[in-house]
């Protein structure tokens, strides 16, 4: 078993240990992320699933489940200012309670933008 395989199993185990309905939503979030960027390697990052270009490179995107579920982009991701009303702000975190088609599409866009 490779390091990538072990890391993936740790991520899947972390998700499997979550209570419903978070488990179902987080499993789908994992699937959306790996489908959007199959080159990303899952691993546990600060106790939650994170995704990087390799087992030893910085995590670019991650998701959490504490009191709420969230998707985040780490400081190592490719950032560009939002522009418009947000000016130079760079979006880096989004809360969600459920995933629908529109949200999944946006997550995939965020993930692809994070890897540059």
**Class computed from helices, strands and strand pairing:** alpha+beta
> How much beta, percentage-wise?
15-25%
Percent of residues in helices comes to: 25-40%
Shape: globular
Average of the residue pLDDT scores: 93
> How many separate structural domains?
1
CATH architecture: Alpha-Beta Complex
Radius of gyration: 14 Å
Strand order, largest beta sheet: 1-2-3-4-5
Note poorly predicted spans. Answer: none
- Give the number of DSSP strands: 5
The CATH class is identified as Alpha Beta
CATH T-level fold name:
Aspartate Aminotransferase, domain 1
- Kindly, what is the distance between the CA atoms of the first and last residues, rounded to a whole number of angstroms? 30 Å
Largest sheet: 5 strands, antiparallel
Q: Give the helices and strands as they follow along the chain.
A: HHEEEEEH
Organism: Nocardioides thalensis
Protein name: YdhG-like domain-containing protein
Pfam families: DUF1801 (PF08818)
InterPro entries: YdhG-like
